[in-house]
Amino acid sequence: MPGRRGWTPQRLACAALLIPWQETRLRAVAFDRTRAFLAGRKRWRRLPRTFTGFADALVSTQRPLAEAIWTRLRAQVRAVAPDAFRQRFGDRDFLVLAADGSRFEAPRTEANEAAFGSAGRRGTGPQVAATVLYHLGTGLPYAARLGAGTASELRHLDGMLGDLPDRTLLLADAGFPHFDLLSRLDAAGCAFLMRVGADRTLLAELTACEHADGTCGGGQQVWLWPEAKRRAGRPPLSLRAIELETDRPDVPNVYLLTNLSAADLPDERAAELYRRRWGVEVFFRTAKQTLRSRTLRSRNPARALCEAEWLILSVLLLGLLTAGAVAAAGGDPAGWSPARSLKTVRRRLRHAVRRGGRWTRQIKSELAACVIDRRPRRGPKRPRDRPQKKHDRPPRPPKLRPATTAERQRAQELAATKLLL
Asked: Domain range holding 129?
């Protein structure tokens, strides 16, 4: 444990959260500027001077320290906007979280290549994979899991299921609706709304539907029952399929799966929620582009994982400060602008160093004005398309076929033994 005048856990956390806010991407220079800000505080006059000592101390206490900060900041997410923390669906309220993953480039060192591998095309360097749960009500990250670039988003999300609070509604894109994952979510009382693509086969007419037209009160009743699960004696998963039409004829329709009824989640609200899932993509753009962290700077695997996790935590802290100020001023906390708030904080950090480490009183009022610009525009805001930009083809519709006679008989046997709920 660091000494009283050394890198205590509190000082480590403060420095790790402030370093990504600095204008420079050189880690040592960002550390020096952060240290100059912290050293201006009366209780923190004497701080260790070397970045290497700070990085080693952070790595040695990374897991318990990061988990403590996650717990502390998650509690503040609810305090910032209590009315927007949960949303009402029928007679129940849910915590709406969107899940998605992305990768950060890492320096091409032998240690990073051995630890992280290459998950991209030929010639791609080592990468750090991050899967984030994004809170829709406040536009803030709620949880994260990191690993090697070759790690699966699905496995990351599966490892975070134990941390989900009760009555969670999970939104995800295609690739996440796996039978085991959906079964565990349904058994735990969590709802989900996930896009499904052509890599999944759905069954129709497996058992008697609630309505004669084959629907389940809005949307089509389908069953997810892979052949391997059927042979293993696992019961099928009864779901509701929702088809959303797209505006462009060359883009296939969007197909969603949910375990909520149409009374709790109408098709119109499901479409609205799925469109808002795009906020998690905006978060990764904030971390990579606004904070200029598309490529990590750590040449050591342990330090690279620390850098990536504290980058996510720093975005969360920045959002808490801004969303809290916006909500206190009567605005929408989810409408905070990362670029404007980062510009404001950086300016105040420079000013605080000149004033001996003291913040000014205007910081809260300035952050309250850091909201997204929603003024009407004469032209499109979208920039010109770049030829090197990657364009992924949208998922094709899932395969839908009627259940066979053997599948219906097997479903009846499971229902008779009360395994089919």
From this structure: 85-286+406-416
Residues 6+ apart with CB under 8 A from 261: 90, 216, 217, 218, 240
Average pLDDT over residues 103-129: 87
The answer to whether residue 307 sits within a structural domain is no
DSSP string, 146-198: EEETTS-HHHHHHHTGGGPPSSEEEEE-TT---HHHHHHHHHTT-EEEEE--T
Sign, CA dihedral 210-213-215-217, equals: negative
Using one digit for the tens of pLDDT, what is the confidence trace for 167-225?
899 999 988 989 999 999 998 889 999 999 888 999 988 876 544 444 444 468 999 99
- What is the number of structural domains in the chain? 1
In-domain check, residue 267: yes
> Rounded distance, CA 310 to CA 69, Å?
10
256 within domain boundaries: yes
Per-residue pLDDT band for 336 (boundaries 50, 70, 90) equals very high
User: Using an 8 Å Cβ cutoff, are 335 and 372 in contact?
Assistant: yes
Give a yes or no: residue 140 inside a domain: yes
CB burial of 394-414 (b: ≥16 within 10 Å; e: otherwise) equals: ebeebeeeebeeebeebbeeb
